[in-house]
Amino acid sequence: MKLSHILGFRLTIDFGKYLGVPLHGRKKKETYAYLLVKTQCRLSGCTLAKAVVAVVAALPTYTMYIVFLQKQLCDKLESMNRGFVWGESKNCKRCHTISWNNFCLSKDVGGMNFRDLHLFNYALIMKLGWGLITN
Q1: Interval 17-65: pLDDT, tens
Q2: What does the alpha-carbon distance between residue 60 and residue 62 come to, in Å, rounded to a whole number?
Q3: 121 and 64 in contact (C-beta within 8 Å)?
Q4: Residue spans of beta strands (DSSP E) within 17-101
Q5: Rounded to an integer, what is the distance from CA 41 to the centroid of its chain?
Q6: Which whole-number Å values give the CA distances from 120 to 11, 88, 114, 126, 130, in the listed order?
Q7: How far apart, in Å, are the Cα atoms of 134 and each of 121, 130, 131?
């Protein structure tokens, strides 16, 4: 007799979402595609680079705090942000007068304080791990 039957639980493959984060066993590109869609929707209404910092900082932060996102997803989010900042569209590519790495520098050094999302995700996971170890 199965444990789920004894305890009266139903078996399920899809656990749904909790606080907006998918609950499942395996990460896939499609699982976190909603971050790309939400970011694109928010960026379409933004007009300033400062707004990009606010959108990027706020939107995926909770998910990044819990789950180590795939590098490809972080790269895609950064690509969307770069395209918005530089005024690019699917039909129009522009010449970039400043590198993205310079945008990511702090304002004290002349950057715009953008974050490398992959490193930011790594730092949030390490913060979570540190909290588990010390408490």
Answers
A1: 666 666 666 666 666 666 766 766 666 665 555 666 666 666 777 788 8
A2: 6
A3: yes
A4: 17-18, 21-22
A5: 14
A6: 36, 25, 10, 10, 15
A7: 20, 6, 5
